[in-house]
Amino acid sequence: MTAYLETERLTLRRFTPGDVELLVELDSDPEVMRFLTGQPTTRDEVEREILPGFLKVYAAHEQLGTFAAYEKAGGAFAGWFGMQPTADPAAVGVGYRLLRPVWGKGYATEGTKALIARAFTELGMERVEADTMAVNHRSRAVMRRSGLRFVKIWHEHFDDPLPGTEFGEVLYAVDRTTWEAGSHE
């Protein structure tokens, strides 16, 4: 399988229809899902919605999507990184989801920085953004270390809110000019 992107310690590739088990493993950890849905994703949902959704984005946007991440040392699956289309064709949204055993190794920042660089240098984007729950301090730290800057906080209504929802959602972003001025170093 062809690599979509390589970093010093990671290789990213497109998901395939045969990758159900990887996603089930990742999304079955309640801590991984804590700030996303608050509960594990079922195998049925991975098979019917999640993985087909990933494949659909590839078909519509050749250079965008969600990419399986592997550690170069040993080749173990580490999780995924995403670079998604937004309502603005000159902007993309970035994100990641990693297996708990690789938390704290700097992979989230490494992969996110690489996606941001690709967005500006190869894809011609003008803006990269990311969002998370305001209480997700670890992801917010990754966003800052990756060169993204706080833009705003907002509140959404959820019928079944996760703990911490009352503190809102946050948006971080960087534009091409700021990134080129050195915030990526």
Strand order of the largest sheet: 1-2-3-4-5-6-8-7
Helix content: 25-40%
Number of helices: 5
**N to C succession of SSEs:** EEHHEEEHEHEEH
What is the domain total for the residues? 1
Distance between the termini: 30 Å
| Integer-rounded radius of gyration | 16 Å
Strand content: 25-35%
Q: Mean pLDDT, rounded to whole units?
A: 90
Give the overall shape.
globular
By helix and strand content, what is the structural category? alpha+beta
> Uncertain segments of ≥5 residues (pLDDT<50)?
none
**What is the total tally of β strands?**
8
- Could you say what the CATH architecture is? 3-Layer(aba) Sandwich
* Major sheet description: 8 strands, mixed
Keywords:
single chain, 185 residues, alpha+beta, 8-stranded mixed sheet, 31% helix, 29% strand
Structural summary, described in words:
Helix 1 (20-27) packs across helix 2 (43-60) and helix 3 packs across helix 4 (137-145). Strand 5, helix 3 and strand 6 (127-133) form a beta-alpha-beta unit. Strands 1-2-3-4-5-6-8-7 form an eight-stranded mixed sheet, with helices on both faces. By secondary structure, it is an alpha+beta fold. The mean pLDDT is 90. It has a single domain, classed as Gcn5-related N-acetyltransferase (GNAT) (Aminopeptidase). It is globular. Helices cover 31% and strands 29% of the residues. It has helices at 20-27, 43-60, 107-121, 137-145, 176-183; strands at residues 3-6, 10-14, 65-71, 77-85, 91-98, 127-133, 149-154, 169-175. The protein is built from five helices and eight strands; from the N terminus they run E-E-H-H-E-E-E-H-E-H-E-E-H.
